[in-house]
Automatic annotation (TrEMBL):
Cofactor or coenzyme needed: FAD
Name of the protein described by the UniProt record: FAD-binding PCMH-type domain-containing protein
Family: Belongs to the oxygen-dependent FAD-linked oxidoreductase family.
High-level lineage: Eukaryota, Fungi, Dikarya, Ascomycota, Pezizomycotina
Signal peptide: 1-17
Keywords, in A-Z order: FAD, Flavoprotein, Oxidoreductase, Signal
A single MF term (Gene Ontology): oxidoreductase activity
InterPro entries linked: BBE, FAD-bd_PCMH, FAD-bd_PCMH-like_sf, FAD-bd_PCMH_sub1, FAD-bd_PCMH_sub2, FAD-linked_Oxidoreductase, Oxid_FAD_bind_N
SUPFAM superfamilies reported for this sequence: FAD-binding/transporter-associated domain-like
């Protein structure tokens, strides 16, 4: 009952009765009516302006939400006014931070209002030193560096130029998750602007059911203007990250991943160890088949030989070794600022699969499919083979958050990249689906798709979990907090 009263009060304030009418405002009237309500630093960008282009150019160009205007917000109140205005004039709206989301469901935003959070990017460490307040538009790379400079760290994700909070809402994966759990597990509380424009605090003691839901399905429930998260002291013996990358021709795949499966089977896996692979096409090394690079990461200044020696014995084409810090780990994957994984303007399509062991026969099939795809996809396509440490992730109870895949050990994600070309979009989706299906063949496992990489064609069960109680709880909360489906553009729980 309290939630419905909260919704109704906000809806009346917003003039929500008009939400079912046809939009009547063009950009000029939007400027005239909304602009006076916003803070001095906020701005409204219309199509054709530099600000509009900067906010709407996406990391994955095949995902094409369209906008009537972009509102660059700088305060929570700006977000509230923008949502109330959008509701009153029947505009869809979408939060914009890192623009890395690629599911096809985002294409349902037509002529909407984009709420650009990028200027809301401050980090404040609380006096107790164990938590920090982070604003909603911060990029992952900025957060890593801001905390590191102050002797702190938290569980951040792999790509510098992605937002931090949006991946957290889908659970998140990151370098320190073996020690501390997922990014979502670091959430202490959050300020959330709901679909009616009202703002609330969610935590273990304030709206606890919604607090459960936003840690795994948070894109469905609101815009997060700031959050409190756990942070941890840097420790000298853990500050360094040693990385060894070994590149092989396709014929070495079986032996390499047999070794990796032995690591997964260890009863007490070392929390310092992460391994990560990529499959790509390099005609200079192998003109007929993709090659693959297998990375070993170790939290320390050198990697124990028990991990490196068996792989070096397989005669890789090349070996790369370096020691860096947390901010530098992703340079090996070209995911640091200014590197290819951060470049915008390409079309990119994921097809994620979560598994518990490397499916070696299926990986061979994947290599063949990858090698046989049209050459237009060769230059910018990869398969991401992510195997972060999962020690602490699995210790946290499955039912404690909406994130549904704590048992998953691996994330295998074909990623097709190509120059924007609408005639190639369906081809890329078909090939990516073939690869996804091939990865599951014979494993006996159901598709579990990481929501932050989702394609958009997955079922609710495949994204949010197969337990009936989990889906019913999410649907119930969706009915309470977003009854009109205003947040139904990123892998919606309800249609």
């Amino acid at each position: 009952m309290a939630t419905w009263i909260l919704w109704a009060a906000g809806a009346l304030t917003a003039g929500f009765a008009s939400v079912f009418t046809t939009p009547t405002n063009n950009g000029g009237s939007l400027l005239k009516q909304l602009n006076p309500l916003l803070s001095h630093e906020a701005q409204i960008y219309l199509p054709g302006s530099e600000g509009f282009v900067n906010a709407t150019t996406r990391w994955g160009g095949a995902t094409t939400p369209t906008f009537t205007a972009i509102v660059k917000v700088t305060t929570e109140t700006d977000v509230q006014h923008t949502i109330k205005y959008a509701n009153a004039h029947n505009y869809p709206f979408l939060a914009i931070s890192g623009t890395h989301g690629t599911p096809s469901t985002l294409n349902n935003v037509r002529d909407g209002i984009g709420i650009w959070l990028r200027d809301m990017n401050s980090v404040k460490i609380h006096q107790d030193g164990t938590s920090a307040k982070i604003q909603g538009g911060i990029e992952n790379g900025k957060l890593i560096r801001d905390l590191w400079a102050r002797g702190k760290q938290t569980v951040t994700t792999g790509c510098d130029c992605a937002g931090f909070i949006s991946p957290l809402l889908g659970g998140g994966h990151g370098w320190l998750q073996g020690r501390y759990g997922l990014p979502a597990d670091q959430l202490i509380s959050a300020r959330v602007v709901l679909a009616n424009g009202s703002a609330i605090t969610v935590s273990a003691t304030s709206h606890p059911d919604l607090f459960w839901a936003v840690r795994g399905a948070g894109h469905n429930f609101g815009i997060f203007t700031e959050i409190d998260v756990k942070v941890y002291d840097r420790e000298k013996d853990q500050d360094s990250w040693a990385a060894m990358g070994l590149t092989y021709t396709h014929d070495k795949l079986d032996k390499v991943f047999e070794i990796a499966n032995e690591w997964l089977d260890e009863k007490e896996r070392d929390v310092k160890l992460t391994h990560y692979g990529t499959i790509a096409i390099n005609p200079g090394l192998d003109p007929n088949m993709p090659i693959f690079t297998f990375w070993i990461y170790w939290q320390g200044s050198s990697i124990p030989s028990k991990y490196t020696a068996p792989l070096q014995a397989l005669s890789p084409i090349s070996t790369d070794f370096s020691v860096t810090d947390l901010a530098g780990v992703n340079t090996h994957l070209a995911a640091a600022y200014g590197m290819p994984a951060c470049w915008k303007g390409f079309s990119r399509q994921f097809a994620p699969v979560s598994l518990n062991a490397w499916p070696i026969a299926n990986l061979r099939t994947l290599l063949s499919l990858f090698g046989s795809m049209p050459s237009v996809f060769h230059q910018a396509s990869f398969v991401l083979l992510e195997a972060y440490a999962t020690n602490r992730v699995g210790e946290i109870a499955e039912e404690s958050t909406a994130y549904p895949d704590r048992g998953g050990q691996l994330l295998i994600s074909p990623l097709l990249g190509y120059a924007p070309n609408t005639t190639l979009d369906d081809v890329a989706r078909r090939i990516a689906k073939e690869m996804r299906d091939a990865l599951l063949e014979g494993t006996g496992e159901k598709l579990r798709a990481y929501v932050n990489y989702a394609r958009g064609d997955e079922s609710l069960e495949e994204v949010y979990g197969y337990e009936a109680w989990r889906l019913e709880k999410l649907r119930k909360l969706k009915r309470e907090y977003d009854p009109h489906g205003r947040f139904n553009f990123y892998m919606p729980i309800t249609k």
